[in-house]
Design brief:
Length: 263
């Protein structure tokens, strides 16, 4: 005999789901950069939650479930973009001790929202998502790992690579500057640690080695300053919760309360 789930949702589930709508649309918009796609992803996520209400008995687990569902929908919808940067090419640049950028030029571009979002569009979605979630929306590494269903080290690696690619995307019109000094910590090793250094996640010894390197290297400080500046500009992408226009909210509310939601 097949045991069917209780067809009746918990009282108040519809209201609880609708209360998450502004946050879901804001998150989807940041990840997709397309309002129509964001609306679709948010609506699909809420409808899926409604249909699977038997899995959502614990109200405290609702937001976590919605996070995972939405992020995975965005990734599933993403298509390869012919202008995306190649991570191998970017890491070769960052591994070159002589490669650096001009912070003032990169941050001038990052101050222009259109340029910043264009640069984000050039990141592969699996790297763009962690950067937006962490630096623009304030998620922790643990929350990102949970949403993407990957380990914390993998989430941190994606964040590191995504930040590097974002700086490279903003700086790809910069001329390379020559400088190569013998350093106790070589540039590539320092650059691999600099994202964790930015977030205060290094042990004391490694953090000191990175600080020492930055104090004496002529090419790494501009890169670090640019990473700091771009991250602060990413914080400027945060929008208030009231990003859902009334007509959009009404359409989704009707969809949730209509026959399709319960089918």
């Amino acid at each position: 005999m097949t045991i069917r789930p209780d067809p009746t949702p918990e009282p108040g589930l519809g209201e609880a789901l609708f209360a998450e709508l502004p946050w879901l649309v804001r998150l989807a918009t940041r990840l997709t950069r397309d309002e129509a796609v964001a609306e679709d992803c948010a609506q699909e996520t809420l409808i899926a939650a409604w249909r699977r209400h038997d899995q959502l008995r614990d109200p405290a687990a609702l937001r976590g479930w919605l996070r995972r569902s939405l992020v995975n929908r965005v990734i599933d919808r993403a298509r390869a973009h012919r202008e995306e940067l190649d991570i191998a090419d970017v890491e070769r640049e960052w591994a070159d001790d002589a490669w650096t950028v001009q912070p003032e030029r990169v941050l001038e571009r990052a101050d222009q929202r259109e340029d910043l979002e264009d640069a984000l569009a050039r990141l592969p979605v699996i790297l763009r998502v962690p950067v937006v979630l962490h630096d623009a929306l304030g998620w922790t590494g643990t929350e990102i790992a949970e949403a993407l269903r990957i380990g914390l080290p993998a989430a941190r690696q994606r964040l590191r690579r995504g930040r590097m690619m974002l700086v490279s995307a903003l700086a790809d019109d910069d001329a390379r500057r020559r400088a190569s000094l013998a350093q106790p910590m070589r540039c590539w090793r320092a650059r691999r640690h600099v994202s964790a250094f930015l977030d205060g996640e290094l042990d004391a010894g490694t953090a000191l080695a990175v600080e020492t390197h930055l104090a004496s290297c002529p090419t790494c400080p501009p890169l670090y300053a640019t990473l700091v500046g771009v991250r602060s500009r990413m914080e400027g992408l945060r929008d208030p919760d009231t990003v859902v226009e009334r007509d959009v909210a009404d359409r989704i509310r009707r969809r949730l309360s209509g026959p399709a939601a319960g089918s």
